[in-house]
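Weekly sync, protein design subgroup
Attendees: M.S., D.O., the rotation student, P.L. (late)

Item 1: inverse folding check
M.S. brought a backbone from last month's batch and wanted to see whether the design step gives back something sensible before we order anything. D.O. pointed out we never logged the input encoding, so this time it goes straight into the notes. Structure tokens as presented (440 positions):
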């Protein structure tokens, strides 16, 4: 009974109205004075009274609502709790608590074994990197898994050890990491990059791989390879596995000059940030944004500069579904109302007219009688057609771009981003390539 009373004493203090630190101090002072001065009187308290207090407090501590809460949190929370309660009832509080503690430790170790770490391959523009994400707690149980992952890295490879989410690393595991970085890795010509170690451990963070566009990289890539990079970047965006980048290093590197891989002509819509949905870094693309992604003279000038001067290898015309400019163009097609009257925008007229003239068939000049769903479908169809028209206009109105396409130095590609699903549809077989340019 005395041992049990120690367990519930603080809870009794709270349930009797204690709310501040002073209540705890007074409680402790009473214990400190009573035990040495009046032990005889304390021993005269009937055990039944202490047991009644214990039962009452225990019922509050282990209420049915608590059992329900622990059950809802999952078996890994409920089983240690239930085991502790049953063990205390069948044995005594001390042994029962030790049994519960042992079971809890077992569940913790099991959790570490199930989720030791994540490792996957990141495809950067310059090379492939094996990315190993360490868990929040790296114990001795993780050593074997980490050692296996490091040993599986091929010769001349590259590995990134990411400890940004890690709170603790076992000294033995840390020694393994240091040994691999300083000896084992270099012996196999493996480049080791570190991230997240500098603030907590005696290892300097440094990324050795190229995660931005350099002059050498730009010169070696073909337009088809650049398109593949954009496709893979969008796939990472969709799956949530975006590349790990050192933004500070990119700022310092790109501050000396820019070497974009592509020119992306997209709409100003807030839901279509090109660098984000293509998982790109600083300096990777020229981003030209205009309402309706139409080929205005300013857009043509930007595309020419990006390809002829900055040496970009690809032009991506990126439209999107539910486009506001296209919707306005569709709704005003065949209407006597001017763009300024309908929108209140005095400089939007040339953009709307460009979409109407190039992308809306004559048969679709009225939409008043169409159902809403059919109108939305028409808007998306016109948005797609607008993208295809822009890819044609770029080479028809720019001899500079047409020449680059004929020489095979630039490829023009169209695509549509679905704002509802987050996926990009690249127009296969509808891009402007050197072969198609020669045919025309």
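Designed sequence read out in the meeting:
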């Amino acid at each position: 009974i005395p041992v049990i009373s120690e367990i519930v004493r603080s809870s009794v203090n709270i349930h009797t109205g204690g709310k501040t630190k002073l209540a705890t101090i007074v409680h402790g002072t009473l214990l400190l004075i009573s035990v040495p001065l009046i032990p005889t009187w304390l021993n005269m308290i009937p055990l039944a009274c202490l047991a009644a207090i214990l039962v009452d407090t225990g019922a509050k501590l282990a209420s049915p609502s608590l059992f329900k809460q622990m059950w809802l949190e999952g078996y890994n929370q409920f089983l240690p709790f239930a085991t502790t309660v049953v063990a205390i009832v069948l044995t005594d509080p001390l042994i029962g608590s030790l049994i519960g503690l042992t079971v809890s430790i077992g569940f913790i170790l099991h959790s570490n074994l199930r989720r030791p770490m994540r490792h996957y391959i990141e495809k950067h523009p310059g090379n492939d990197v094996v990315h190993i994400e360490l868990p929040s707690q790296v114990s001795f149980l993780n050593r074997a898994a980490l050692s296996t992952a490091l040993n599986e890295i091929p010769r001349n490879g590259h590995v990134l050890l990411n400890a940004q989410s890690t709170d603790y690393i076992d000294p033995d595991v840390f020694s393994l990491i240091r040994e691999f970085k300083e000896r084992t890795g270099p012996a196999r010509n493996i480049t080791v990059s570190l991230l997240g170690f500098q603030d907590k451990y005696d290892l300097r963070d440094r990324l050795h791989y190229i995660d931005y566009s350099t002059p050498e990289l730009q010169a070696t890539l073909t337009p088809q390879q650049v398109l593949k990079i954009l496709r893979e970047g969008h796939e990472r965006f969709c799956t949530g596995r975006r590349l790990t980048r050192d933004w500070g290093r990119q700022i310092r590197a790109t501050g000396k000059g820019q070497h974009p891989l592509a020119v992306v002509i997209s709409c100003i819509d807030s839901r279509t940030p090109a660098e984000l949905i293509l998982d790109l870094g600083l300096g990777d693309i020229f981003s030209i944004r205009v309402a309706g992604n139409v080929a205005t003279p300013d857009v043509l000038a930007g595309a020419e500069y990006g390809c002829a001067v900055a040496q970009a290898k690809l032009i991506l015309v990126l439209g999107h579904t539910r486009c506001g400019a296209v919707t306005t163009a569709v709704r005003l097609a065949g209407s006597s109302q001017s763009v300024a009257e309908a929108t209140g925008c005095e400089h939007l007229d040339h953009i709307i007219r460009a979409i109407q003239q190039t992308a809306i068939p004559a048969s679709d000049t009225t939409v008043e009688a169409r159902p809403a769903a059919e109108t939305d479908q028409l808007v998306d169809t016109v948005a797609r057609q607008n993208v295809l028209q822009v890819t044609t206009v770029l080479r028809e109105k720019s001899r500079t771009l047409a020449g680059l396409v004929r020489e095979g130095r630039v490829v023009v590609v169209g695509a549509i981003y679905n704002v509802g699903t987050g996926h990009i549809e690249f127009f296969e077989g509808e891009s402007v390539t050197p072969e198609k340019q020669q045919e025309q």
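Discussion: The mean pLDDT is 84. Residues 2-113 form one domain.
Action: P.L. to compare against the previous round before Friday.
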